[in-house]
Amino acid sequence: MLGWFRKLLPREDKFFDLFERHSRTVVGGAEALEKLLAGQDVERWASEIVRLENEADAITAEVLLAVRRSFITPFDRSDIQDLIQSMDDAIDMMHKTVKTVRLFERTEFDPLMQEMGTMIAAAARLVAEAIPLLGKVGQNVPRLTSIAREIKKLEDHSDDVHEQGLKDLFHRHSGGDAMAFIVGKEIYSQLEKVVDRFEDVANEISGIVVENV
Length: 213
Fold this sequence. Notes:
With 213 residues, this protein is mainly α. It has helices at 2-8, 14-37, 42-69, 77-103, 111-133, 141-173, 178-212. The mean pLDDT is 92.
């Protein structure tokens, strides 16, 4: 009965505008991280990630406030909160990576770190594709399901790249520069956590699909 009643009332579509704005900050941050890891003007791209992370935080706060103030939401309030928070966690983790890069003044990065940066950018673009499709979940189930699956495949691959990166670090530094190993290990760990956060977004998307079809 409640579900039928909700369908008769106007939807709060502003949530999708906010989600799309946030997804654009996530894509921007991921693409900046990819360029940073390529060694292209590291400080410029680090600053861009910080700027976008602050913008993303403001959008997240706006979404959470809108959830409290809105009578009608496009889907369950807890799903809205979990989705925006999982997206925000992804760009927060990019910011943490920037902090490590700045702290240890890194300007060069391993090829496998760069590969992880490429995967992060790919995952971010998939999320940005998925967000507008949530406006009409029933019509977009196949593509939303495919996107979630593609993100999970990226996460699986990143696990392998992360492991290989640590092995390479160990072989390179086991007899010498322990600090280089520690810093490299930390960067790999943070990059892996960024991809993990995108898997969390994929899981939230899958949950919304299941609950709204």
